[in-house]
Amino acid sequence: MSELQIKTDFKTQIKNEFDKLQSSLNGSTGSEINLARKEAFDTFFIQGLPTLKSENWKYTNLTFLNKLELISASKESNVNDLNVEELYYGRLDSYKIYLVNGRFSKDLSDNISLQGLAVSSFNTLSAKGIGRYSEYFGKLTHNTSHPFVSVNTALSDSVLVIEIDKGVIIEKPLQIINITDSRENAVISNPRILIISGKSSSVKIVESNYTIGSNPGIKNIVKEFFLDDNAHLNYYKIQDDSEFSYTFDFTQANQKRDSHFDEAAISINGRYIRNDLRATLDGENIESHFYGLFIAGNSDFVDNHTIVDHAKPNCMSNENYRGIMFDKSTGVFNGKIMVRRDAQKTNAYQSNKNVLLSDNATINTKPELEIYADDVKCSHGATSGALDKTSLFYLRARGIDEKNAEIMLLNAFAAEVVAEIKIDELKELILQRIENKLNNAN
C-alpha cells in the first residue's frame, strides 16, 4: 500500500485516533468501559467499512470516506466567537443543551433547574466516570455489529445524559444543539446521548445539527433511549446542516409496558445522511410512531433504515416516511417490522412514499415484514413516482403557474409528516425551511 493510500484510508485513520486516545488514558486501560472500547475498535478494525455486498449497505458506497483526511474533533474547539443566536433552530422557545464536537458545553447551555430533570455528562476516559449509569450505557448497542456504532464506542470520550424522574411532566421542549467545528480540519465527532425516561414521565426533545466551517465534518452519533412503564418521549431530529456535513446517526430505544415513543427524522440539508432507528417493544400496550421526511438535491444522499421489534403482545407501531428527490440525489428507505411468536394482537403499519422530480434522481425502497405470530394486523407499502398530473392540471386550470403549482403540491406532501410534530413553533420553522429549499430547487 502506498504512503498516499495509508494517509487517506479511513480504517487507518480511525486506528490512529484510537491509539492516541489509548495513550491518554494514564493507567485506566483495564476499566470495564475501556475494555468495551477496545472490543468495539477490534470489531470495527476486523470488519472494516461495509461494502455494497452487505445487505444493509447495498445502496451505499462508503469509499468517499477514504478520501477525507480526518482527525477527531478537538475538545479545545473555540466556539465563543460563534453567535449562537444566529443558529436557525436556536430561536425555538426551548431549554438549550449544547454539544460541541460531541462534548457537553456547560458554558453555552442553559442553566436548567427543573425538579425531576437532570442534564449532565460523564467522561468515559475515567474509570469512575460512568458511575450509576453503568446499568444503561452501552446496554442497547452492545453487539449491534453496526460499524459506526463500533467507531463511536471506540472514540467517544463523553456522554450526554438526560434523565427524567418518575411522574415528571416537562412542558417546555428541551433542545440538543449539536455542533461540529470543521473550521481548521476535516473532522469526525462522536456524540453519545443517553436518555432515561422514568415511569409515567413526559418530555419533548428536539435535536438540531450544525457544521461550522468549510472542511468536511462527520457527525457519528449514537443514542440510547430507555422508556420505563407509561413514559412518553417525543424526539424530533432535525438534519438541516451544511453542504460539508456527513452524518451517521444510530438510535436504539427500549420501551416498557404502556410507554409511548414518537420519533421524527426531518432531513432537509446535508451531503450524506444515514439514519438507523431501532426500537424494541418490550412490554404490553406500547405505542411507537416513527416519521421521516427527506428532501435531497444536488448529489446528496439520504438513507433511512428502521427496525421495529414487537417482542410482546398488544402493541402498535406506525411508520410514515416520505422522500422528495431532485437533481442527482439518492434516497434509501429500508424498514423492517419483526413480530415475535408471543407478540399476539400486534398492529404494525409501514408506509414509504416518494416523489422524484428529476430523471437523474434515485430512490431505493425496501419495506419488510417478518411475522411469527398469527393474530396480528400488519401492512406495508411503498410508492415512487412523479407528481400527480391530475392535481397539477387542477391547479394550473386555476391560473397557478407550473412552478408554483409543483411547490404547493410538494409542500402539502411534506406537511403530512411535519404535522405529526407536537410543537407548533417547530413545525412553522421546519415548513419555512422546506418551502425555501423547494423554491430553490431546479
List the helices and strands and how they pair.
Elements: H1 3-8, H2 10-23, H3 32-47, E1 70-72, E2 95-100, E3 103-105, E4 117-123, H4 147-155, E5 158-164, E6 174-181, E7 186-189, E8 192-197, E9 202-212, E10 217-227, E11 232-240, E12 245-255, E13 260-269, E14 272-281, E15 287-296, E16 301-310, E17 316-325, E18 330-339, E19 346-356, E20 362-371, E21 376-385, H5 389-396, H6 402-418, H7 424-439
Parallel strand pairs: 1-7, 2-6, 5-8, 6-9, 7-10, 8-10, 9-11, 10-12, 11-13, 12-14, 13-15, 14-16, 15-17, 16-18, 17-19, 18-20, 19-21
Antiparallel strand pairs: 2-3, 4-5
Provide key terms for this protein.
442 residues; alpha/beta; eleven-stranded mixed sheet; ten-stranded mixed sheet
How far the N terminus sits from the C terminus, by CA atoms, comes to 42 Å
Main sheet specs: 11 strands, mixed
Count every helix, treating DSSP H or I runs of 4 or more residues as helices.
Answer: 7
Contiguous low-pLDDT stretches (5 residues minimum) are 1-6
Shape: globular
- Tell me the helix content: 10-25%
Question: What's the total count of β strands?
Answer: 21
Name the helix and strand elements from N-terminus to C-terminus, one letter apiece.
Answer: HHHEEEEHEEEEEEEEEEEEEEEEEHHH
Percentage of residues in DSSP E strands: 35-45%
Overall mean pLDDT stands at 91
SS content category = alpha/beta
Radius of gyration (CA) equals 22 Å
